[in-house]
Amino acid sequence: MHALAFHHRIIMPDVHPSHIAVVGTPIPTAIDTTLRQHYHVTVLEDIAPLYTQTATHFDLIFLFTPHLEGTLEALRQHPRTAQLPVLLLLPEVSKEVIQVLGRFTCVDFIVPFVVQEVLLARIELLLAHSKNLYATTDQETMRSELLRVAAHNLKSPLNTLKLVEDTLRERHADEESRFALDTLRATVKNMQAIIDDFMDMVVIQTGNLRLKLQTVELFEVIMNVIAQYQLVADSKSIRLSYGKTGGQVMGDSRRVLQIVSNLVSNALKFSPSGTHVRLWTQHNGQYLRLCVADEGPGVRPEERHLLFQEFSRISTRPTGSESSTGLGLWIVKQLAQEMGGSVSAGFPPGGGAIFYVDLPFARDE
What we know:
Number of domains: 3
CATH topology of the largest domain: Heat Shock Protein 90
Distance between the termini: 71 Å
Oligomer: single chain
């Protein structure tokens, strides 16, 4: 017996004369014999049982079909066969066929004159690829679910702390108590921001981000963000201002606000006292570009490729007591892309950084 493992079960439609006629030789029968020598094979009368409970017990589908694209679409859309690897026997291979196969994961093909060793090697490689691919997918799903549950469970004690802080603030008005309560409020707010980042990451990674695209006036968003972060800027003696702003973009209003907030928060976080953070907009082809500039230390050239990556860490550190999850800029990038935009960054020779977000103009722009 061949050295390959004898433990996989394969779904294989019966070798009907019509199939042999398509390839013009009795080779499918020989392939059937080879498979039975090395695997557990279940022969099905037709394709329909692939979509029933039976399909969940197998590791691979070995398929003859003249309706290539439609069959693969159906297999990948059905929950019982969505992750099963598929090996096709094709009488001939064209550029069009290769393009069709390229749209599907874990799909391979053989031709009628394939030798036994190649056939078995292709099957084992396909099985191994499928196992590694979906093992990784399952791990990512588990990680996302754990983060979601953890973030959700942390919200309850944070809400309790907020209530306690409000209650204590009503009862204690002395300066020492106010200082302690201000510290508690800042800590709770910081923790809430961290949880929100993790929740957003899970939503984005699991494909559950829902956007309500509409016309968004960017000037109003910028004014709201500046008002939101003015106290933070004042506490660090940072001037927060805006230049020429205006224009309407097509986006989700809440997520556009989140993008601007993340960029301003990031600029203030890494800016030293006595510097300036500026916002303005400009036209960039079919996009309206939001610009957020700071006068911080910038980012080392060798670290700039990390800026918009998930959980990225660079040597530049916050100038105050702020914390960083390494998710803020990654979230900005994901949200911008989901709304049809893009992000980038520039680093002037004199220092600092400028972050750009391009969002498509509203239809009436």
